[in-house]
Amino acid sequence: MKKAFVKGIVAVVYVLSSIGLTGCGLLNSVYENSTPSEEADIEDEYVTGAWNDGMFWCGDYRVDLECPQAGHPSGSADSEWSTGYELDDGTDVNVDFFSREGSVEDRISELENQEFAVEEGILWENPCYFYVDKVEFVTIAFIQADERNYIEITFQSWEEEIVPFDEITDEFTLTIQSKF
Predict the structure, then answer these.
(1) Residue 118 has what DSSP assignment?
(2) Is 75:52 a contact under the CB 8 Å cutoff?
């Protein structure tokens, strides 16, 4: 019985490997729009894929996202989710989502003590606070999940330009739902 089970496992692995379904779900990167010379310059790397929607947890709240461009979990700077979009003028913008512990009010007080101007706004139909860090070229928004947790969203241009809050695309959908 044990020998038949082992043979069965080996056969399944062989069949899966012959059709390219091994590697624990990791796929080789595909560069659809690159030329052969560009592909030669790009080292082989493994990616887990990218999606136009996803979710992460912020305290006891589930945050569901729909993004205009594909994104992925654990983006730059240890974010919960990372994606991007393009401004009307062609500027590429990286967007990172972070789950933060603490109160938005405390964070705003810290920022105001550092002489940042924090403003109120609406981001993807959610009330938020935001500020611009002109040294780091980043616009940062906060959306309250509950009194102990909030979502921080950073918008950073690839060209080291400030992303104006009023130019953030409204094509995103961010929904905060209670886990219970």
Answers:
(1) -
(2) no
**What are 65's two structure tokens?**
């996202």
Mind listing the pLDDT tens digit for each residue in 13-43?
A: 333 333 443 333 222 223 333 344 444 444 4
Place of tokens 């594909």: 70
pLDDT in tens, 123-173: 999 999 999 999 889 999 999 998 899 999 999 998 888 999 988 888 888
What CA–CA distance (Å, rounded) separates 174 from 132?
Answer: 21
DSSP letter at 172 equals -
DSSP secondary structure code for residue 77 in this structure: G
Strand partners, 129: 120, 142
133: Cα separation from own chain's centroid: 20
Phi first, then psi, for residue 78 (nearest 5°) are: 60, 35
**What is each CA distance from 146 to 39, 124, 143, 149, 179, in whole angstroms?**
46, 18, 9, 5, 12
Q: Which two tokens stand for residue 59?
A: 């305290």
CA 77 to centroid of chain Cα atoms: 10
pTM of the model: 0.68
Tokens 């209670």 sit on residue: 178
